[in-house]
Amino acid sequence: MITFSDRLGALPGYPLAEIPAIKRRLLERGVDVIDLGAGDNDAPPPDVAIETMITAVRTTALSKYGFQQGLPEFRQAATRWVERRFGFRFDPATEMLPLIGSKEGLAHLVFAVANPGDVAIVPEPGYQAYIGGAILAGAEPHIVPLKREQQFLLELDRVPESVLQRAKIVFVNYPNNPTAAVATPEYLERTVAICRRHGILLAYDNAYCDLTFDGYRAPSIFETPGAREVAVEFFSLSKSFSMTGWRIGFAVGSKELIGALTRVKSYIDTGPWLAIQKAGAAALDQQEALVVPVRAEIERRRDAGVEALRKAGFAVDSPKAAMYLWVALPEEVPSAVFARRSLEEAGVVVLPGSGFGPAGEGYFRIALTVGPARLAEAAGRLGEMLERMRRGALATSA
Ligand SMILES: Cc1ncc(COP(=O)(O)O)c(C=O)c1O
After folding, report:
1. Ligand 1: does its nearest atom lie under 6 Å from the Cβ of 177?
2. Ligand 1 nearest-atom number relative to CA 38
3. pLDDT tens digits along 213-265
4. Tens digits of per-residue pLDDT, 87-108?
5. Is the peptide bond before 160 cis (omega within 30 degrees of 0)?
6. Whether the bond into 334 is cis, omega within 30 of 0
7. Residue 167 pairs with which residues in a beta bridge?
8. What's the pLDDT at 396?
9. Predicted local distance difference test score (pLDDT) of residue 295
10. Closest ligand 1 atom to the C-alpha of 126?
11. How far apart are CA 35 and CA 20, in angstroms?
12. pLDDT tier at 15 (50, 70, 90 boundaries)?
């Protein structure tokens, strides 16, 4: 009889876990499902990535183990892009690390700094790899609720001093998933200052830095003075280039911090496939041009989605960045019930706020992964669903 670890048992449910099976059942029944669940844009990857990949697949040398070193060309293209985009240099050989998507790097980073019982500070609602990485590494997650009245910012000065003293890592993600909130330079300054004071590693997740609207520009954590001492920043090619399934991202930071993550990963994986690094390098070299249409399309979808949801009776802010709408629900409507019924009765996949942790209750998330017409159709169906649930709640409370 195999028994499982306490760590496995401590993992919360993953928000996307049961959706694929329900969705398949509905599709088999002929339901017109609109999937606004995962942050997986419907656009194809850039031609330059596909063309480079086709040649790379035929190149025998690129079929070999990449190890953590990976493809120097990818390291150079990524650090060149960081320099063009943010204006500072990282040594491609020692201050960056290719990742099999940024998710694994974020989760694995905890292993480099936390001993069992040390604290990892995680936002809630938040990307589940943070809490998962913390628990699997034996760290104790300290949850910080993100609240609308605090612009969904993870404020370390609200964390008790005794917790800060035991904390080894904090996960900070702006533009944010799932709330789509953004960070101001002042916020980043006070966050870096507290991390420096307490020796807390700042894992800055910048997966959505390209997806910004209304002229907003998402900063790097390294624009904040002193950040190099305490921060590792994570970038992803998934969202900017619609390459989610390719699994390619990277981290930048000081030689010591990147070296520690490299050492952890060398016992776990052998890096992204070199052919994908080759294709990723080609995309990064043309990043500025390639993201223009992606950004414009998501902005169009944001406008259409916000308008349609408001018309359908929902309260939703219009975000400056990322690819999500974080939509408020009336108090009497639990988000898990709403999301389940929306899928089963309205054929619309949304993620319940509670799937991002209890502090996400009161909201649901939609991903702007389909065009304006489909978003409008989905919003209409969700509005009808909400109305039915409200009437039901009134009927039960009467
Ligand atoms: C906040 C955040 N960070 C990281 C990732 C992971 O991206 P990747 O595909 O690079 O692993 C996601 C994916 O949804 C995300 O939402």
Report:
1. yes
2. 14
3. 999 999 999 999 999 999 999 999 999 999 999 999 999 999 999 999 999 99
4. 999 999 999 999 999 999 999 9
5. no
6. no
7. 119
8. 59
9. 95
10. 1
11. 10
12. low
Site of tokens 């609602």: 125
Q: Which of 25-34, 50-59, 187-196 has the lowest mean pLDDT?
A: 25-34
Compute the mean pLDDT over every residue in the chain, rounded to the nearest whole number: 95
Ligand 1: does its nearest atom lie under 6 Å from the Cβ of 236?
A: yes
* Ligand 1 pocket residue status of 179, Cβ below 6 Å: no
Ligand 1 contacts CB of residue 39 (under 6 A): yes
Average pLDDT estimate for 56-66: 97
Q: What is the pLDDT of residue 20?
A: 84
**Residue 87 Ramachandran class (φ > 0 left, ψ -120 to 50 alpha, else beta):** left
Length of the chain: 398
pLDDT confidence of residue 394: 59
Mean pLDDT of 325-350: 92
Buried-state track 91-113, b at ≥16 Cβ within 10 A, e below 16 = ebeebbbbbbbbbbbbbbbbbbb
State which of 122, 206, 238 you would mutate to test the pocket of ligand 1, scoring each by most atoms of that ligand within 8 A of its C-beta: 238
pLDDT at residue number 13: 78
Q: Closest Cα to residue 42, out of 385, 374, 394?
A: 374
Contacts of 115 (CB under 8 A, 6+ apart): 138, 168
For the residues of 74-91, what is the DSSP string, one character each? HHHHHHHHHHHHHS----
Q: What are the structure tokens assigned to 249, written together?
A: 């991202």
The yes-or-no verdict on residue 395 having pLDDT over 70 is: no
Of 36, 104, 205, the residue with max ligand 1 atoms within 8 A of its CB, to mutate for a pocket test, comes to: 205
For ligand 1, pick from 14, 100, 103 the residue to mutate: most ligand atoms within 8 Å of CB.
Answer: 103
Nearest atom of ligand 1 to the alpha carbon of 173? 1
CA–centroid distance, residue 129 to ligand 1 (Å): 9
| Residues 231, 220, 90, 242, CA torsion sign | positive
